[in-house]
Amino acid sequence: MKAWQEALLAWYRQNARLLPWRGEKDPYRILVSEVLLQQTRVEQAIPYYRRFLERFPTLKALREASLEEVLKVWQGAGYYRRAVNLHRLAQRVEELPPSFAELKGLPGLGPYTAAAVASIAFGERVAAVDGNVRRVLSRLFAQESPKEKELFALAQGLLPADVDPGTWNQALMELGAVVCLPKNPRCPNCPLAAFCQGKGDWGRYPLPRRRKAPEERLMALVLLGRKGVHLERLQGRFQGLYGVPLFPPEELSRREAAFGVRSFPLGEVRHALTHRRLLVEVRGALWPGEGEDPWKRPLPKLMEKVLRKALPLLAHEGVVSLPDAEAHGVKPL
Ligand code: SF4
User: 3-204 in CATH: which number?
Assistant: First the structure.
C-alpha cells in the first residue's frame, strides 16, 4: 500500500462521522442509505433513513407495501423517482444479488450505487465513484476533465489489495464530503496534502461540467372546492404523487375556462429539479367542485411549497384550520 493510501485510511479510522449506516452490513439497509444520499444531504437524509427502515425494515416489507404508502413515507425527501425505483426493485428481486454486475441495472441502481452496495455489503473489489470521489481524485492527480470511464479505471486501479474495499470507498467519499469540499477545501487539514498535485489550484480540478439551466416559468392553480383542494395524479417524474394543475403561463385562460373560474395571484415559489430551475406563479380560485384535504396525499416538495403559498387562502376558507396554518408561519387574512 502506498503512503497516501495509508494516510487516508488512518485519517478515516479516526475521523469518520458517526452515521446510522456506518458499519452496516445488511445490503438492503445500505441500499436505502445510498439511494437517499444520491440527492439528499447527509443531515437531511438521516431522519428519512430511520423513518423508511422503521416502516419497511426488509425488502419483503417494502415489496408488500403499496406504492402510495412508500411515497407517503418518502414525502419531503424529494426526487420521488428514487422511491418508485426502490419499490420496483423490491418487486423484481427476492434478495439483493451479491455482485456489482447483477446489481447494476436493477431499478434505480447506476454504477455508483451498485458499486457502493457490492463493496460495502459484499466486499467486492469494485470502486464506487460518486461526485465526492470524482473531486478528490481529480485534485489528487490534477485531472481537469476526466471522463467517467477513465476515472472509474483510475479508481479501480487504486483499490489497495489488502484493505476491505467498502472501507476504502467510504474513506475516499468521506474525505470529499468533509475535507476536500467543492468550494473551500480544507487543504491544511487534509491527510493527503503532502501527496496532492492539485491543492495549490484546486478550483481547476475538476472543471465544472454544466452551466446553470435557465429558470423556467410555470403557473400552479390552487382550486378551492367545498371540501378542499382539487388534486390531480401527477405523471412523469412525479408519477404516483399528487398535486394541483401546473402548466405554462400561456395556458392560464384555457385552464380557467375549463374549471369555470377566474384566478388571482397568491405569490411565487422557486424550485430546483435535477436539470431544471422553476419559477412558479401560484394562483388561487374558488371553485364549485368538491376537492380534498391535500395533506392526506403524497405530495412532491414542489407541491408542498405551492400549497404553503396558498395557506392563507386555505385557512380563510376553512380548508385547513387557522392553528394549522399558523404553525406554518401564516398570518390570518
Ligand atoms: S490537499 Fe486539498 S485539494 Fe488536495 S485532496 Fe486534500 S483537500 Fe483536496
Answer: 1.10.340.30
